Input
Amino acid sequence: MDQVVNYETRGALAIVTIDNPPVNALSHAVREGLDSAIARAAGDDAIETVLLMCAGRTFIAGADIREFDQPPREPHLPDLLNRIEAVNKPIVAAIHGTALGGGLETAMACHYRCASADARLGLPEVNLGLLPGAGGTQRLPRLVGVELALDMMVGGRPIGARKAFDAGLIDAIIESEDLREGAIRYAGQLTQKAAAVRQTSAISISAEPDSRFFASYRARIARRTRGLLSPELIVECVEDAVSAPFPDALARERERFMRCKASPQSAALRHLFFAERDAARIPGLDSSAAPRPIRSIAVLGAGTMGSGIALACLRAGCEVLLLDSSDEALNAGRGRIEALLQQQVEKGRIQSDEAAADLGRLQLAREFDSLSGVDLVIEAVFENMDVKTDVFARLDQVCKPGTVLATNTSTLDIDRIAAATTRPRDVIGLHFFSPAHVMRLLEIVRGGETADDVIATAMAFARRLRKVGVLVGNCFGFVGNRMLYGYGRESQKLLLEGVAPERIDRVLYDWGMAMGPHAVGDLAGLDVGYRVRRERTDLPDDPCFYRIADMLVERGRLGQKTGMGMYDYPEGDRAAHPSAEVAEMIRAEANRLGVVQREIDDQEIVERCIFALINEGARCLEEGIAMRAADIDVIWVNGYGFPRHRGGPMFYASQIGLDRVYRGICRFRDTLDKRYWQPAALLEKVAAGDSAAAW
Ligand code: CAA
Ligand code: NAI
Output
């Protein structure tokens, strides 16, 4: 027998243990080993009950995602699970860690399920653009009912053992410390009482939903799942579970699973699964550089970002000292943190004692002297070089040796900030995204002198905050905001060329962006970018460049916070209403600047904005500002609302064809503006098929 599946007996009990680190994924070898172990137990008359469990940190965490790009090999999981379910002696799954995807499907094909109290169970295939393809869409509704099954499969979030028990997904919670011994005892009890074989497929779905249920469920998930293929197919599978015989429904589930697996969306989501994990691997980093211990953190600046960053740290269990220059700012910052925690309590996401404990770890300070003992400082004061260098010079004087000095600047030169200290090796960029306690991205900016162990500390810190840390190089705007400039430039130019802001936003939203660029500008505040542009000395000599955004700011239309920006927000309404004043302003300005207004189709709107992103991404890559194309994808998906199911801008480019993107950029160069549309050298090379050029 294959060593990834072990077989042993204890009297009448056969114990089958999967041992395939790190997460016991159902690789081909595991499927083969499991198939023969189950056949062996089934064929041995001395065996009355079978216990299936896993070694290591978790129960089966699903199919082996790496095998999805290869042709399927027998035994196929659905057939294997049907054979497990058909065995005429009780098979018990004992779950610890996470039973996910094919892992939970395996457990559901067993006749009984027990789990440790901290186990989690789920069908997260939707996150990979898939649906449960080994009977999960059929067995889960039979065990827990249609609605919870749909929520688990469409939402993709696992549930805890207690909820699973209450819902009927598992039959027992093993309270003892030792799951194995507890599970053996539980299986022994089943043997003793000659427990029957219970086939999940034979259960009939109780409380069938009425005819309107599926229509209203579809309406409920429509917004959240827009553009996605697999959620709709999951709903169709569950409709079958209710109405069709099990074997027919299973065959249709398989056919839909194969359709999902072959889809560009699933390829994109699988790419991101690995890209997000690979981001933590840093080529060339000294492997002996251990992260510095971070016990206490100071956040400087209690404004929008400072309070969000402080909250993110508190939620991760850290001690936080929040410093600002006035009591007023400090109290406002603390108030924001308290209100956000209270919101989480009201939404049932955290308990009120957790919120109180978080707040208990927050201290306020006005004096730099109080920073002498902290391990990490995160500076989030005004975005101004003089203010930042002044702050860093003072930090240099008060902080103990070894303190990591981080700046949350969104655009400024890390090396100039570091040069204000006598310890540039300890200085790094930790670029959070707003709202900092929500957004998953942490762009980690390495300065010219940043030490390897400071980088390792920042990467470990990102993990602790449950964020994806991506290491990038130092330049204006780093990777994310530098690319945003091209995207914003085109979305602004399109206005002058006669496309209404609401149409640009709708087209990009429908394409999959979380929000349109003009709605984002109003949300973030148009004055933020305005101030950054005033500080830059390298902007093109182009009267059209961000012209409309500048005019809005100069008219006091800063966005939602002033009740008007690109859109109107009458009486505090957060919904954007197109503004007649802005429409007229744009028309008149285009006229004044001599910009010809013309009919522009949706495809051009998308290509102008997205190709601009890709071209700048290619430059980041060729200059080494980004280490890998996949890192850029991780940044744009987690920090800028780029649609996950398109895999990020660089993956999207390779999916639609790098030569097509290259030709599109050349067309824009020839017909629009030579200044902005020179194709990146790297793009030109890869489009020409140069396999040595890494994309
Ligand atoms: N296949 C292959 N490799 C996997 C894997 C899988 N299903 N799940 C995790 N891994 C790998 C990761 O890539 C990572 O590898 P590296 O160390 O080389 O980067 C390693 O296992 C550890 O994973 P994490 O870093 O994510 O560890 P974690 O402890 O933070 O999380 C986890 C563990 C909760 C299991 C998480 O890895 C996870 O959510 N995995 C995906 C689960 C999933 O989506 N399962 C469904 C698969 S699809 C399916 O099953 C379809 C079907 O119908 C049969
Ligand atoms: P903010 O204006 O809301 O807050 C800045 C705070 O810093 C204020 O409370 C101010 O009193 C305090 N401050 C200023 N100088 C100080 C000093 N010398 N010592 C102590 N406190 C001082 O600004 P915001 O938006 O929070 O931005 C802060 C930083 O975060 C900037 O560098 C910005 O570029 C960056 N950032 C902002 C994002 C955003 O969406 N707002 C996103 C990512 C980064």
Remarks:
- The chain has three domains: 5-261, 296-472, 480-624+657-687.
- The chain has 28 helices and 19 strands.
